[in-house]
Amino acid sequence: MTTAPQQTPVASAQQRLSPKMTVAHGMEIPLEFSSAEIEHKRKVNLGVCDVSCFPRFGVKGRNVVQWLQENKVDIPEPNSWVQQGESLVLRLGNGEFLVEDQFEGKLCAALDEAVMPEAYGVYKIRRNDAALMLSGSHVQELFSEICAIDLRDGALLPGKLVMTQMAGISATVLRQKFNGEDVFRIWCDGTYGSYLWDTLLEIAEESGGGAVGLSCYYKEML
Amino acid sequence: MKLLKCPVNGERPLSEFVFGGEVREMPDPNTCSDQEWAAYVHYRNGAPGMKKEWWYHGPSGTWFIAERDTMLDEVARTYLYGQEEKQ
Amino acid sequence: MPLRLLKYALSREHPAPRFFRACEKPKDSYDVVIIGGGGHGLAAAYYLAKDHGITNVAVLERGYIGGGNTGRNTTIVRSNYLTPEGVNFYNASVKLFEDLSQDLNLNLFYSTRGHFTLAHTESAMRTMRWRAEVNKHVGVESYVVGPDEISKACPQLDISCSGQAPILGALYHAPGSVARHDAVAWGYARGADQRGVEIYQNTEVTGIDVQGGKVRGVHTSRGYIATNKVLSAVAGFTPRVCKMVDVQTPIVIQPLQACVSEPMKPWLDTILVSGSLHVYVSQSSRGELVMGSSLDPYEVHSTRSSLDFVEGLTSHILDMFPFLSNVKIVRQWAGMADITPDFAPIMGKTPVDGFYLDAGWGTWGFKATPISGKSMAETIAKDKAPELIHSFRLSRFEEYELTGEKGAASVGH
Amino acid sequence: MSMRLPKQNGEWINRSKPVKFTFEGANFEGYEGDTISSALWAGNERILGRSFKYHRPRGVLSLANHDVNVMVTDTVDTNMRGDVVAVKAGMKLTAVNTEGGVRNDRSRYIDKMAKLLPVGFYYKAFHTPKSMFPFWENIIRKAAGLGVVNFEYPRILKRKTHRHCDLLIVGAGPTGLTAAIVAAKNGLEVVIVDENAQAGGSLTYDRAGSPEPLSQLQELMAEVARHSNITLMTGSYAAGYYTDHLVPIVRPDGIVKVRARAVIVASGVFEQPPVFRNNDLPGVMLGSAAQRLIYRYAVKPFNNGVVVTANAHGYRVALDLLQAGCKVSAVIDLRANGESGPLAAEVARKGVAVRKGSCIYEVLPQAGNMGVRGVQVCNYDEERAEADASSIETIECDGVAMCAGWAPAAALLYQAGTAMRYDNEVHQFVPNRLPEGVFAAGKVNGVYKLEDRMHDGARAVAEAMRHLGMDAPAVTVAAHAGAAPSHPYPVVPHPNAKNFVDFDEDLQVKDFINAAKEGFDNIELMKRFTTVGMGPSQGKHSNMNAIRILARIRGVAPEKIGTTTARPFFHPTPIGHLGGRSFHPHRVTAMHSWHKAAGAVLSEGGVWVRPAYYAKPGMSAQDIVQDEAMSVRTSAGMIDASTLGKIEICGPDASHFLERFYTGSYGSQKVGEIRFALLLDEAGVVVDDGVAARIADDKFYVSTNTANAAPVYREMQRWLQKWKLNVWLINVTGAYAAMNLAGPNACKILSKLTSDDISEKAFPASHFMEAKVAGVTARILRVNFVAEQAYEIHVPAPQARAVWEAIMEAGAQEGLRPFGTDAQRLLRLEMGNHLVSHDTDGLTNPFEIGAEWALRMGKPFFVGQRSLKIIAKRSVTKRLVPYMLDEGYSGEMPQECNLVINASGEIKGRVTSIAFSRSVGRVIGFAYVDPADVAPGSRFQIRADSGAMVNATVVKTPFIKSSNEGDQA
């Protein structure tokens, strides 16, 4: 019987950086890559943080909106997201939803346990996202190199999400306010996680940014 | 790079899409002749013109139809399959 | 300096006549009308006259001769195909090419440089062996070589491809050559013209007159021409011409792009192709690197260039030759290619009596110019396709007898 | 003697930063801000390079990035353009393409042989006798080309970024700057680019001796600086126009791919050389080049020059020369009426002699064509383009400024699809019909007067705003008035030629005449035959004259000749810029770092990186693979199977969907059962295989081949739309990791980690169950792909590594070891399983691989079924069979893709798989053979690489002894 914590999809890329690890939401995740001072500097320029440990719940199906509503989930417009308490509710296109609990969120667990009556025709989607958080003054520079579409504030509006290609792979992007600052969230298939992580770091490091641990954003929570 | 408008995700560069060929009516396999079927499988309407085509937006996994002038490479409109009238 | 050039120094008037007459007004009728004044159409005209004595022929060209894919390809000639039919056919073309400068009395710069198809994966290596075995079987000099032999022929090549796609080996094809593509068209045009064929440039075919399943004539921008035999040799325009006679084909049109670098002193002596990296490259006699890639991924009937193409190509070129970082690309261009489902041409007779097709040349038409011309000339003259092109007949699709070239889905330039 | 002038207002050089460098071994000193050419010219060096064909000495021509005869190398880089590349301290420069240096170039003899080298000469000789061609070819190849490539040059990573804006303006001259200001005032986000090191265009150099242009420029720049919504990029050229307003801007440090909503092309014009004998000598330059030398670099073009002109610009140049302290011995005006108005008056007032209706008959060279010693001037008949040689008069001078007209820098406009027309008022091609969202303004639009150009910029903005759906007032621009800025035919014939049209390719007037005589009298054919415009400057200074000459030969208007197609790039663009930082996306599994730690040798399978085998010191790969396979046969092995495609088919119509999509039958499949899933395309060709496990009434879990996950999922999505079934597809390829535990001890090992009964009896082959493995909920599939006893364990990816490690640990006692894809290939072969795309190709149908058993032809429909009905009527030409080589065979080992040859020497098939199996003790494999030879025991022959024929015998599968059942059918 294994009691080992879950592993972030980015683990194999992070290994060479020998981060200090912690377990959050049952997943082993980098807490710190470097001193708080260095990480803070990185974050001001371009911090890349792995938040794959947040619980996630994906669902689609014929009556998915009705089912979610009955389970007290706020329904955003297509390709939009809403924050519900400590959880993000993303509507990917028209008919697929991704719920992600932030540190204190409990929505995923509740949905996981909620009954899915057959008649509703809703189906849970097993996910394995590499989930990243980016911020800093050079984020747009980075995006301009890995993404062909405009992700500046005037184009990526609050409450909107974008499914696009980043560095050649499919990714979902949104901008959220976090502790009063703009942060960007990126989700991609976990098996591409290590590739995306390495690619982002290579570029970030050229502008004084780099990997930052969970503590850089979530000091109080840990 | 050309831009193409996915009816769900909006205007994107072509690199986000996969071309799925012209929309073609399948003859009834039970009643058509071998020759008709072979023509359906192999022959294409290769002359230029306004065509209905399948396109797939990769990052969101969305198939849709584009009506495109293959001579000018200009897209007149795009819509989800079967939702032509809603556009 | 060759003595042949002396006359130019000695005469006051430029001592060279026109390559071909300036034809303006077509006759009312011809024995054969050829649509398309590219290499293929002109070669067919040449061999109709030379081999079969049929000289009452008009070649109709919408633009200028050799202005289509004849002038847009990357000039590679080879015969290292996968099927015995393919190898035999292209080998016959190579044989004709080898003597063509003398035959046409025009220096085509036919230059045999050896051709490497690089393999970066085990499965590509398997395909190389397959091709090598079939080539050997038919008597064509192709064999599988390892990285050492590739390095010997091209020491500048980074065998690891910058670590991205290490080269495991290659199919070496000794007869692989390049030639001056424009000159091939001009040479055939001159040869045909000298034998009485009339070449009309800026002459567009607007319709083909078919009565009772037989060709009766063509409508052109210079008026109606009566004829019982029409050859369509119009890469990139085949579906349009076939529509005029209501003949169905599998052909779709996709652009194929290429580019050329600024000239530099010769260093690349061989022709290199990489299916995995979608690159083919050779150095021309002018010193330019001539480079091409795979087809654009969708149907377009225009010759616009794309940035994607040149970005992708150069990135792969750098994987192979990192030192080219500051060498410059001068020009990019595109052609429209007839694409068939089995990567083989469509040649021969059609359901319409007197309508002959020389089409579906995808990305490999230039290398077949002489033999396609010769084969189509015979097909037209005898109203029967020679055995050499039997497997390329249009009816193969309805018969579910596609050629086996589809077996090796790699770049085929 | 230095040609450096005292400080010029607005000069681009930094006199506080001297730069020392060498050229051809001699020392030079320039300033920061100098180009190589300007610094050399300042040092009174006139022989900057040699021409491509005749190796004639050349100097400054344009100083505008088309002086391609001035290409230098610094031993690291080559083909550096002296006219635009900034000079740097310590550079050791030499000219490219010389033999023995630029002054004593031994190849200069070719110039004397020019008559032997008529246009297209290389087509006319060298091919007979045939055997001599390689000899000549070698000489020609060596003579061609410019610089020598440095094979040690590093791969330089350049950034490529995207930039979005409302309006892109190409060209930051007065037109473009005005446009930018007007657009910015209207709230547009503007990107404006200019290839020059500083903005300002003609205001930076074309001054007619007046300080006015500089102050106008300063006003404009101050205004631009006030607008935060203007991004000005200098030293940056727009390399091409691509569909939907995508314009790559090439900068020294990379490429910015600008995607604009509208584009204004205000790129100006290129000055065109008039054509006369020896118009290429060092010291003969375009008027604008002389102006650039003076005002940008504070360099005197020459001491005593003449201006040959056919427009007002020549008079402006004369005034600029005078201002710089040059003596101007004459202004020679081709036009019978010359110039009138204030410019002419000013020139006359300064005492410069003006000769109207005159031309330069030829430039008199210094010894060795090293420079100018004078010009022969004579009367010129403008209409007939004839020089009256009887009226020749010699003027001594050391330089010539040429001002005969302009050609639009319209490459981007052409690429965007603009139709141009020839305007007889300005004698220039101007835009006639512009594509949507693309606008032209300024000189490129045929507008010349400075105020008009600025108006034209504002007009273009108004049009662009309307294109963007904004309101904007109409702006009108006055039509061109007065004499044309370009001469319709500035060509002076000369019996001894050397009157150059194309300086890149050393083409003279007679070359065009002779090409036309040979039938190449259409501009495109002429271009190809003469190679005009095909050199590195891409015709910037030659195409217009070529068109004028051809028009004259054919007796038609230039418009009838048309132009050649302008392709990207506007300027030659480095491969390193275009390639840039490239992305190579790849996927790794959840167990990736475990594999690496275990010594895995990785290989690529599609986009995945996965273990081929696990290296062991001192052992060959071949032996390791045999060992890995053997452990599966004797005890147990485990492979990371995460790369398999995994798709969930959910919904009430799930089985119905599978019935239509795959060839098999799924309606009757019970929950917990697994069935084979063979996928065909509509032509009946095998494209994929996998298994379908029914995990609930309304849910199937389907696997695909590694490379096919994405395309199969995509096709499922498409068919689903057409069939309108109540089905939901979920691609869980990345969400689930999978591992295949195989071998006689597999059950025993797995049992240690699960409380469920997984024994053969309770959980037989081709069944599915959900069970906890090491505490993790797993989907277990009994799939006999590599061994009879095999458990494919699928778990959520984040938990997979823990499960993998737990199993490895649990199996330690049994000697469980990991195996890679190489051993897997052998193992599946031993089991008699073929691999799609390894044992099949792009044409293989199910009948050829003996997969009839997998076809439910009686179903109402499945993809490919109708084609199979047609194919079934035809005879099969080859069939895939399992075979063995003879016992103890020790000859040459055949390879995959060696051919199967029959007794009459015909190809009957090929080997698709072959391997020595230690378990079987024989070489086994699959091969396509003659359908007559498929019965077990049939013999056939394989031809090995060397030509040796190897006997093989058709056998039954599986190759290894089975404990219970026969083959998969």
Can you tell me about this structure?
The complex is a heterotetramer of chains A (222), B (87), C (413) and D (969). With 222 residues, chain A is α+β, with helices and mostly antiparallel strands. Chain A has helices at 11-14, 36-46, 64-70, 107-113, 139-146, 193-206, 215-218; strands spanning 6-7, 20-24, 27-32, 47-50, 56-61, 80-84, 87-92, 96-101, 122-125, 129-135, 161-166, 169-178, 181-189, 210-212. In chain A, the strands form three sheets. Chain A has a six-stranded mixed beta sheet. A five-stranded antiparallel beta sheet of chain A has the order 6-7-8-5-9, with helices on one face. In chain A, strands 1-3-2 form a three-stranded mixed beta sheet, with no helix packed on it. In chain A, a hairpin with a 2-residue loop joins strand 11 (161-166) and strand 12 (169-178). Chain A is globular, with a radius of gyration of 17 Å. The relative contact order of chain A is 0.22. Chain C has two domains: 25-73 and 182-250 and 342-407, 3-Layer(bba) Sandwich (FAD/NAD(P)-binding domain), CATH 3.50.50; 112-174 and 252-339, D-Amino Acid Oxidase, subunit A, domain 2 (D-Amino Acid Oxidase, Chain A, domain 2), CATH 3.30.9.10. Chain C starts with 5 loop residues before the first helix and ends in a 31-residue tail after the last helix. By secondary structure, chain D is α+β, with helices and mostly antiparallel strands. Chain D folds into six domains: 1-153, 2Fe-2S iron-sulphur cluster binding domain, sarcosine oxidase, alpha subunit, N-terminal domain (Ubiquitin-like (UB roll)), CATH 3.10.20; 159-270 and 407-467, 3-Layer(bba) Sandwich (FAD/NAD(P)-binding domain); 273-404, FAD/NAD(P)-binding domain (3-Layer(bba) Sandwich); 495-576, BFD-like [2Fe-2S]-binding domain (Arc Repressor Mutant, subunit A); 640-828, Gyrase A, domain 2 (2-Layer Sandwich); 875-954, Aminomethyltransferase beta-barrel domains (Elongation Factor Tu (Ef-tu), domain 3). In chain D, strands 8, 9, 10, 11, 12, 13 and 26 form a seven-stranded mixed beta sheet that branches. In chain D, strands 39-40-41-38-32-42 form a six-stranded mixed beta sheet. In chain D, 59% of the residues are buried. Classes of the chains: A alpha+beta (222), B mainly beta (87), C alpha+beta (413), D alpha+beta (969). The B-C interface holds B 1-2, 14-15, 18-19, 22, 35, 38-39, 42-48, 51, 53, 70-73 and C 238-240, 242-243, 248-253, 297-302, 304, 306-308, 338, 341, 397-400. Strand 18 (328-339) of chain C pairs antiparallel with strand 29 of chain D, so a sheet runs across the interface.
